[in-house]
Amino acid sequence: MHLQSGKILDGGERFLTEFIYKNRTQGGIRLRLAQRMPLPRSILLYDDQQGALLAANVIWQNGVDAGCRMKGRWPHNEKLLLRMGGPYYAVQ
How far apart are CA 60 and CA 67, in angstroms? Predict the structure, then answer.
């Protein structure tokens, strides 16, 4: 079994933390954060496998677990996608 992972960014496209998918449905997603930190209401999710950016709203958070409602794909930003897919994604 392969754990699906990704990265969380804020609305200003700044890296916040990494995550793994706990559960995924049509319109929602449950995440396990790499570290305990409060998330802003609106976030971006970078999917490591798909190399895609998705916009989401945080609906609830309890420690390192969070539930989000998906809003759709984030407008294409080639420079940001390259940064997130590279080894130094936390450096802007």
Answer: 5
Output the DSSP codes for 60-78: EEETTEEEEEEEEEPPP-H
Distance between CA 5 and CA 84 in Å, rounded? 12
Cβ contacts of 63 within 8 Å, gap of 6 or more: 36
Q: What is the amino acid identity at position 80?
A: L
Q: What does pTM read for this prediction? A: 0.86
- What is the rounded average pLDDT of the residues 9-27? 91
Residues 6 or more apart whose CB falls under 8 angstroms from that of 7 comprise 15, 16, 17, 18, 19, 45, 46, 48, 84, 89
Per-residue pLDDT, 83: 84
